[in-house]
Amino acid sequence: MVKEKKATTISKERIEKIYTFLFNIKIPNSDIEIIKADEDKCLKILNEALTHSSINSSLNHERLEFHGDAVLRLVASEYIQTHFPKLKVGERSALRAQLVSDEWLAKVGSAIAINETMQIAPKALNDKAANQTICAEATEAFIGALYECLKQIDSIQIWLEPFWNIESNKVLADPYKQNSKSALQEWSQRKGLKMPVYQIKEVSTLHGDTQRFYCKVFLQEKIAGEGWGSSRKKAEKEAAKNALESFKN
Predict the structure, then answer these.
(1) Which residues have a Cβ under 8 Å from the Cβ of 75 and sit 6 or more positions away?
(2) In what helix (H) or strand (E) does residue 224 lie, and over which residues does it extend?
């Protein structure tokens, strides 16, 4: 006797929205067929990943975000091994750090408009300051959900590859590998100098303002560089980069 398939508790409208999302972000048909083969289970997993904690405190993206973090690091390592086998271990680590960063995840989330498919409370959705974080967390959770559904990493790597190609080219073209703070620290250590000291000032309260934070970096109690950024981290990176450029010149 054939066991009757258990009905899903997700609405037809929600199911259609999830499948439309998968189609729009170019998940291969072969992978969608795998999802359909175990539809009840997979749709629940995908719906969980695409549900923000602001709307459901018990069943939301957080579990799969944790899982996605591990999957993403493994897939990124495989991507680097395949495309950049001659990179040294340190260079691989620096590149991977960028390919799994929250900033990169937010870019991907924005590119695939993941917030439009997320079930999320209006207050959280309208919080521009939290928008990048929500995009990053949702994208990581979605990657975790894909792995739980597909049970292999090849499809995830193929899907992420176009995004990684753009980012890796940018990182490898940058002499500081997008981490000018570490580069400045290494430079100062080689010169026998004290650690760089950063001084941050918030000059604007406007979220998204590219000059919201102003940073000065000091070496041996002298200003070595200045920078601006929409976040403290970005301002520090810009200040460190400008310091390194001034020493190079």
Answers:
(1) 143, 153, 156, 157, 160
(2) strand 222-229
Indicate whether 6 belongs to any domain: no
Look at residue 1 and tell me if it is in a domain. no
Active-site pick, 39, 62, 69, 226: 69
How much is the pTM?
0.79
| 40 carries an active-site annotation | no
Q: Tally the domains of the chain.
A: 2
238 labelled catalytic = no
Lowest mean pLDDT among 19-28, 114-123, 177-186: 177-186
Q: How far is CA 29 from CA 12, 23, 249, in A?
A: 20, 8, 53
Residue owning tokens 């990176």? 237
Selected catalytic residue, list 31, 48, 137, 140: 140
CA angle 180, 111, 210 (to 5 degrees): 45
Q: What is the pLDDT of residues 95-136, one digit of tens each?
A: 999 999 998 999 999 999 999 999 999 888 777 768 888 999
Using CA atoms, how far apart are residues 232 and 235, in angstroms rounded to an integer?
5
Phi, psi of 152, rounded to the nearest 5 degrees:
-160, 155
Q: What is the pLDDT of residues 220-233, one digit of tens each?
A: 999 999 999 988 98
Element (H, E) at 199: strand 197-202
